[in-house]
Amino acid sequence: MPFTANKAFKARPRLLASAKDMHYVSDDGRRILDGTAGLWCVNAGHCRAPIVDAIAKAAGTLDFAPGFQMGHPASFALARKVVEILPTGLEHVFFSNSGSEAVDSALKIALAYHQSRGEKQRTRFIGRERGYHGVGFGGISVGGIAPNKAAFSSQLLPAVDHIPHTHDLAKNAFSKGMPAHGASLADALEAVVAKHGAETIAAVIVEPVAGSTGVLIPPVGYLERLRAICDRHGILLIFDEVITGFGRLGTPFAAQYFNVMPDMITLAKGITNAAVPMGATVVTGKIYDTVVNATERGIEFFHGYTYSGHPLASAAGLATLQLYADEQLLTRAATMAPVWEQAVHSLRDAKHVIDVRNLGLVAGIELATRDGVLGARAYDAFVDAFFNEGVLIRTTGDIIALSPPLIISEEQIWELVGKVKRAVERQV
Ligand SMILES: Cc1ncc(COP(=O)(O)O)c(C=O)c1O
Fold first, then answer.
1. What is the block-wise mean pLDDT of the chain (428 residues), using blocks of 10 residues?
2. Structurally, how many domains does the chain consist of?
3. Pocket flag, ligand 1, residue 216 (CB < 6 Å)
4. What's this model's pTM, rounded to 2 decimal places?
5. Based on the domain organization, do 317 and 212 belong to the same domain?
6. Are residues 116 and 150 both part of a single domain?
7. Which CATH number covers residue 242?
8. 280 Cα–ligand 1 center, Å
9. Do residues 100 and 139 lie in contact, with contact meaning Cβ atoms separated by under 8 Å?
């Protein structure tokens, strides 16, 4: 099972049988409030009719079309729709099937871009501690999570550095919105440039808000500083928006929320409301033109997946973006953010809680570690929440991450927080 304690799971399985809107139904018939939009991905809520219908229709019309030297209209239509809601300048979409593939595609595009413009020595990637970029060899290499690499460390990408993460409980605990302290942590990038030389560095990849390692929100001014340093040295900046994309922060993408424009964006999850797997890497016109114009004749970029732009995923994506537009879901997190902030910060005085942080419709609730066993208390709270409170939460270490579907009501926000509080306070 993926990222699962197999023995514990099999001793007491947690099985989901169906879902609708804000709820799952477990295999024993209990309604489970979805506090995590599945895995940060079901942004419009579950089994939404327009998406279900579009997938069914596509399955009966064009089951598959090869993407190599061929195409089909829906994938181009979806690419255009995605570009419409992205910041101006991000213009070309490369489809894949997951966030991991979107990231590996971005890293390859970065190398191809520098090679195409005659700087093929720019091969080094810079990631960040506590970054998560999926599980491909590229993604775990630039990622900053030690357990994800431990068994594979002998075969990671060879030229990768990591700058420090921005999580600083001593200075920023219980921040509402962006924390005040830490912009200067971006300057670590200058130190990496000084060490290796800018002419060796291809790209920096960061999640604008680190999700998987516990909702680490960038300090005020930090992302601007990263952008400026990249500009100074001709380094590409990649935002991994697999979680923050499609409305999580109250704007379509985090790039708009923070008003910092990357050279590439990686997407997945919410692009199809998670109903069909899909990933996407979006690049500027300059990157696309540079790579494509470097080859006179034939294939310009030797990369792709059998299921790139799959017809069912494309149909799901088109229906999803229409639903987001019809229900104004890409900005709904901004409307709900004040209630969300008030609700999650009501956990401040709950037993075991040492930090609460929030932005848009996402929150991290950090618990004190029990007896030096990292993650045990939060895991027990997660199991308790599922079986005794009927709520799905997500934990990483001793941090509970909440990221509900963007359709959540005010009443459901308070219900979610109340259930989390009870589950946490029952733990020793
Ligand atoms: C920021 C980020 N990048 C990449 C991924 C990998 O996506 P996938 O699991 O679809 O491969 C994730 C998954 O959670 C993610 O949060």
1. 96 98 98 98 98 98 98 98 98 98 98 98 98 98 97 96 98 98 98 98 98 98 98 98 98 98 98 98 98 97 98 99 98 98 98 98 98 97 98 98 98 98 98
2. 2
3. no
4. 0.98
5. yes
6. yes
7. 3.40.640.10
8. 11
9. yes
Q: What is the pLDDT of residues 233-288, one digit of tens each?
A: 999 999 999 999 999 999 999 999 999 999 999 999 999 999 999 999 999 999 99
Q: Pick from 298, 326, 354: which residue ends a domain? A: 326
pLDDT tens, residue by residue, 326-349: 999 999 999 999 999 999 999 999
Answer yes or no: do 143 and 30 share one domain.
no
List the strands of the sheet with 16-20, edge to edge.
16-20, 23-26, 31-34, 391-392
From 127, 55, 143, 36, select the one nearest 323 (Cα to Cα): 55
Q: In which domain, by residue range, is 220 found? A: 52-326
CA of 130 to the centre of ligand 1 (A): 13
d(CA 149, CA 135): 9
User: How far is the centre of ligand 1, averaged over its atoms, from the C-alpha of 104 (Å)?
Assistant: 11
Pick from 40, 105, 243, 362 the residue to mutate for probing ligand 1's pocket: most ligand atoms within 8 Å of its CB. Answer: 243
Domain assignment present for 39: no
- Which pLDDT belongs to residue 339? 98
Kindly state whether residue 41 falls inside one of the protein's structural domains: no
Residue 212 beta carbon below 6 angstroms from any ligand 1 atom? yes
Encoded tokens for 159: 């030229």
Same domain membership, residue 230 and residue 87? yes
Q: What is the CA(200)–ligand 1 centre distance, in A?
A: 27
The answer to whether the CB of 103 is under 6 A from ligand 1 is yes
At residue 81, the pLDDT reads 98
Alpha carbon separation from 410 to 46, 119, 361, 420 (Å, rounded): 18, 53, 12, 16
Q: What is the distance in A from the centroid of ligand 1 to the CA of 206?
A: 12
CATH number at residue 337: 3.90.1150.10
Regarding the beta carbon of 133 and ligand 1, being less than 6 Å apart is answered yes
Domain boundary among 269, 303, 326: 326
d(CA 379, CA 82): 36
Q: How far is the CA of 255 from the centre of ligand 1 (A)?
A: 17
Residues facing residue 163 across a β-bridge: 128
